[in-house]
C-alpha cells in the first residue's frame, strides 16, 4: 500500500519536480536507488557525530541526482540531531575572490542554517535561545537557585562554553559574541541581540562598526570564513547538536571562472579545507561538494587542473565502473537504472493521484510504454537524465488528469520521436522488466 503523502508536501513535490528543481521537503517519499552511495555518506555522518570530520565530492552529470542526494542527506542529518548549512555557488558566491565572494558563500551558508525544529533555514536565533533556555532549565533542576544566584550560575555555564572556544582560531572573538548574546537575552535587549546575530552572519562590513556596536575587533572575511564554520561546529556540539554538515553545490561555477589565477585561488582554498579536515584539525564537521564530471576532471579548467588536488582526488589503479571505492573522496553517481526509474514514476503516479483525489489509472503497461518512449528518444542513450524523465512524466499525468478523455497512447502518440541509435524497442524494454517485481 502506498504511503500517504500530506497534500502540502505532495504539492511542493509536484511543483518543484515539474520545474526541474529539487524540493527541500518530502524527498523520503520519492527516494529510490543510491543505496551504496547513501550508506557511504551515512557512515561519514556517524563519524562526524563521534567527533570526526569528513570531506567528499558528489560527482554526476546534470540531472543525474546530485542535488537530490545532497538534499536527501540534509533532511536525514537534521532529523538525527545535526545542524546543516547549504549553499549553491554562483558568480557572486565562491570559495575565494577579490570582491567578497568567499564571505558571500559564508553568509548564504549561515542564512540556510537548519536543524530539526527549523528545517527551512534561519535557525541561528532558535539555536541560541534554546541553548540558553536549556542551560537555565538544567541549573534550576540541579540547584533550585533563584534571583541573582541563579543568574550567576547560568552565566558560569555560558562562559564555560565560551571559554572552550577560545583556543581555536578566532575563538576569542566568537566566545565574546556568545557571551554578549547571553547578556542581551538576560536583559531583553533586542538591539544587542540583532547586532550579535549580524556579526555571526558575517554582515558587518567593517571592524570599526563591529567594535562600535559590540566591542569586538574582528569580523568574518574572505580569509577566515572556513575557520568560523569550524567554530560553529564546536559551539553547536556544546549546544547539544551532534555536529555540523556543510553542503555546497554547483562547483561548475568555479570551472566557469574565466581568469586562471582566480580559479587557482578557489582550488587552493578547497585544498586548504580538504587538508585541514583529513589531517584531523577539524572536529564534528563534514563537507559534501556537488559538481559535474567535467568541472572536477578537466585538466585545463577543472579541479584536476590544480595538481595538488588532482593527486589527492584521482582514483587509484584498481577502482573501475564495476568495482567502486566508496570510501574515496569522490563518490561518482551513475544514472538510475530502468528498474529504479520504474519505481520512481510509480511513486510519482501515486503522489499525483493522492494530491488531486483520484484513483491511479496508469497501470504497469502504461508506465512501461512511457519509459519506452523516454529511453528511445534521439540522444537518450547518452543524454537522458532522471530530471528529464520526471518532468515529462509529471506533464503526462497532468495532461491525463486535466483531459479525462485522453489516453496514454494518444498523448504519447502525439509526440513523435525517432529511436536513438542502439535504442530498445518496446518489446525489448518490456523484456527488461519481465522478471522485475514491483
Instruction: Please count the beta strands (DSSP E, at least 2 residues each).
Output: 5
What is the percent of helical residues? Answer: 55-70%
Supply the CATH class of the largest domain.
Alpha Beta
Going across the biggest sheet, name each strand in turn: 2-3-4-1-5
Q: If helices are DSSP runs of H or I spanning 4 or more residues, what is the number of helices?
A: 20
Oligomeric status: single chain
Arithmetic mean pLDDT = 84
Shape: globular
Structural class of the secondary structure composition?
A: alpha/beta
How would you describe the overall organization of this protein?
With 438 residues, the protein is an alpha/beta fold. The chain has three domains: 34-115 and 241-332, Rossmann fold (3-Layer(aba) Sandwich); 125-214, no CATH class; 338-432, no CATH class. Helix content is 55%, strand content 7%. The chain contains 20 helices and five strands. The chain has helices spanning 7-18, 35-49, 66-79, 101-111, 124-143, 147-165, 171-187, 190-200, 207-214, 225-238, 252-255, 260-278, 293-297, 307-313, 338-356, 364-375, 380-383, 386-402, 408-413, 426-432; strands at 53-59, 83-88, 244-249, 285-291, 330-332. Strands 2-3-4-1-5 form a five-stranded parallel β-sheet, sandwiched between helices. The protein starts with 6 loop residues before the first helix and ends in a 6-residue tail after the last helix. Mean pLDDT is 84; it is low at 416-425.
How do the helices and strands line up, and which of them pair or pack?
Blueprint: H1 7-18, H2 35-49, E1 53-59, H3 66-79, E2 83-88, H4 101-111, H5 124-143, H6 147-165, H7 171-187, H8 190-200, H9 207-214, H10 225-238, E3 244-249, H11 252-255, H12 260-278, E4 285-291, H13 293-297, H14 307-313, E5 330-332, H15 338-356, H16 364-375, H17 380-383, H18 386-402, H19 408-413, H20 426-432
Parallel strand pairs: 1-4, 1-5, 2-3, 3-4
Helix pairs in contact: 1-15, 5-6, 6-7, 7-8, 15-18
